[in-house]
Predict the structure.
Amino acid sequence: MRRDKNLPLTETVYYILLALKEPTHGYVLMQKVEELSDGQVRLAAGTLYGAIENLLKKEFIISMPSDDVRRKVYALSQTGESILRADYQRMSHILKITEQILNGGAPK
Amino acid sequence: MKKIKFFIDFHKEEQWLVKMAAQGWQLKKQGPVYTFESAAPEQPTIKIDYRHFKKQADFIEYRSLFEDSGWQHISGTKHSGNQYFKRKGAYDDDIFSDTASRAGRYKRLADMMLSIFILFLPIVFISISKGTLGIDYLLNPKTLYFTPGLWEMSGAKFWGRFLFETPFALMRGFSWSISLALIILYVLMTIKSWLLYRKAMNDDDV
């Protein structure tokens, strides 16, 4: 099986996609990423704008008009969700195999 | 107060604007000159991004995101490229949170300079193909004059025709040198912004 060239996702992209499971504005997204990552990933405005632009181009997320004309709402697309799940699978495997080796589980 | 200054290095420009603010000069508008307003001296954080926007809605969204996170947009339009942001207080704060995006502004600037240079390229090709790439003019300024038999004339007739054509001849030589100067300028600016991009990619503190 050939792996998607977008994998692995960066930590930033992973958290942005995860946070957008629930559609939201850019600024709320910034706060949500910080919250989901336990304060580890703090995105500045310019960096987040660039990341959003890039994810829109890749069609991992979509933008929707909102009742607030000054702010768009972003949401995870189907492509975005499948790439997020693929990266989750990849990391689950890493966790499982690491557990076996480091904590003395039986190797397969 | 208006000031004329030119920067490629955003970091140096930011430092200069902070210094101006400390002396009581608040940036009001940039492009093509810097317009400052007299204000109480302060120590703000000023950061510059480089972006163009296709749609007005995208530009508004961009500014809202910065304003929501505490950055006041002080100057910049949809097509100006340079976008100036200010935050009160000299925090160790930035509009970028990683090296790649901090360097990305120089990449976008370099791409823009390069595309302007490419727009100028046809002028170079036309000049070369017509054989009017100014070098001949410098070596032999006589070729700038088109009056038939001018250089065989003498006395008042020569001076009359010569002086009549001189403004046109200068324009021929001069307009070419403006194009050449612009082309060289854009090549240099492309190289400079590319080097700043490379430097920013290798540097975590710029």
User: Anything to note?
Assistant: Helices of chain B lie at 10-22, 56-68, 99-129, 135-139, 155-201.
